[in-house]
TrEMBL record:
Section covered of the full-length record: 291 to 567 of 567
Sequence ranges assigned to domain EAL in this UniProt record: 23-277
Domain of life: Bacteria
Protein name per Swiss-Prot or TrEMBL: EAL domain-containing protein
Organism: Ureibacillus yapensis
Length: 277
């Protein structure tokens, strides 16, 4: 694998310090985790701001290595993108999310959507849709249960192929959310080209929401842009009731964040939210 300049991978670099080829060790650990199914998905609820009811959840990947301990996705996802493991990780996430949905469907009258994060590199593979459909067929889960979260980065330099791909996903019944909205440096042109369903306002805007008028102005502007385009809005990283109240005042539909719940493993999530499925 190529190495990244700077201290991007500080945790494993630090913990594997003194060992030769720590990049190769890390890569083989990650490869092993995918193969041996020691990765885990946690789920964070998305809540309707008005009714406070569960409307869906986001699957977030967790990895604990016996030697290195818990490694955050902000470290191993960029690494996986560089060394090429991101495709296997993405498929692992899709398959295991589908299996979890199946389990929930068998236990209850499950009618919410689970969102998965898909790397732009994975999404841009030519056979992405084909392989996704194969996973859905094999697990017998309907696309109506899945939302694909794509960052603005995925929309950069969009072309006809990308537009076709998103249209195809929509036609199949998947929904599309734009993640970390407002942090990408891409133009907004893609918003009207693509049949997107949801914008997720990045947490950095929510953090600033009660730091004076300009913080509120940014959030209000994003919400009204979304509504003008007939998109729903999810606010990410909502931690306080002050933030929640401001978001409600500007008619933000959905919220996600520690205020309601941290990401939980499937067992915890089920016992806390099953009555809202
Ligand atoms: P993201 O998609 O923006 O996910 C939201 C992140 O914010 C999660 O961090 C979540 O735990 C955290 N979060 C949620 N509510 C709050 C809050 O109220 N306060 C604070 N401080 N944080 C909150 P996490 O799980 O560490 O994931 C970080 C990033 O790693 C994700 O950002 C996403 O970009 C990436 N990621 C996670 N799982 C996957 C995956 O399965 N596939 C891919 N490609 N990327 C993933
Ligand atoms: Ca996300
Ligand atoms: Ca996000
Ligand atoms: Ca983020």
């Amino acid at each position: 694998a190529k190495t990244r300049k700077g201290n991007q991978y500080k945790i494993f670099e630090h913990k594997l310090h003194g060992k030769n080829d720590y990049i190769l060790i890390f890569e083989s650990k990650l490869r092993h985790a995918i193969k041996e199914n020691t990765l885990e998905l946690h789920y964070q609820p998305k809540i309707d701001a008005k009714t406070e009811k569960l409307i869906g959840m986001e699957a977030l990947l967790r990895w604990r290595d016996p030697e290195l301990g818990q490694i955050p996705p902000s470290e191993f996802i960029p690494f996986a993108e560089e060394c090429g493991l991101i495709h296997d990780i993405g498929e692992w996430v899709l398959r295991n999310t589908a299996l979890q949905i199946k389990e929930w469907e068998q236990q209850s009258d499950f009618n919410v959507r689970v969102a998965v994060n898909i790397s732009p590199l994975h999404f841009k593979k030519v056979d992405f849709v084909e392989r996704l459909v194969k996973i859905m067929d094999e697990t017998k889960v309907r696309p109506e249960h899945l939302e694909i979260e794509l960052t603005e980065m995925s929309m950069m330099d969009y072309n006809e192929e990308l537009i076709n791909k998103i249209n195809e996903l929509k036609k199949l019944g998947f929904t599309i959310a734009i993640d970390d909205f407002g942090t990408g440096y891409s133009s907004l042109g893609y918003l009207k080209e693509f049949p997107i369903d949801t914008l997720k306002i990045d947490r950095t805007f929510i953090v600033n929401i009660n730091q004076g008028e300009s913080g509120i102005a940014m959030v209000a502007a994003i919400i009204s842009l979304a509504h003008a385009l007939k998109l729903k809005v999810v606010a990410e990283g909502v931690e306080t009731d002050v933030e929640l109240e401001i978001l409600k005042r500007y008619n933000c539909e959905y919220v996600q964040g520690y205020y309601y719940s941290k990401p939980l493993n499937a067992t915890e999530f089920t016992s806390k939210f099953q009555n809202e499925f």
